[in-house]
Amino acid sequence: MVKKTLNEQLPNSIKIGWKDVKIERVKTSFIKNNSDYWGQYVARENKIEIQEEAKGLDLANTLLHEVIHAIVYHSSLNAQGGPLHDDDNEEQAVNSMTNWMMTVLRDNPWFLDTIQQSISEEKAKKN
User: What is the CATH number of domain 6-126?
Assistant: First the structure.
């Protein structure tokens, strides 16, 4: 049996709060302010777009980064008067949180397993 690549394992959507956010792999190159991006969250279309070329840690970091952007949007943190209303503030906060979380997850493999096991145990109690 051939093992699926990370690209092939990526689902078509992710549940974020009360919304199902589409995930699309795209060929488009995202360039903003002379910086090259692997992905973007498109709030109007409720979707995350990730370049097909993103692989490995770049893919994981981009997916987490765009999920955090969606969380910021759906929790109104970037709305008028919100703490992340300024695009630069939002990008800096999201980028910092993503990079730190990726480091924690990469350097502590037990961490994510512990969280998943705790959630599974809690679900089992309810059934």
Answer: 1.10.10
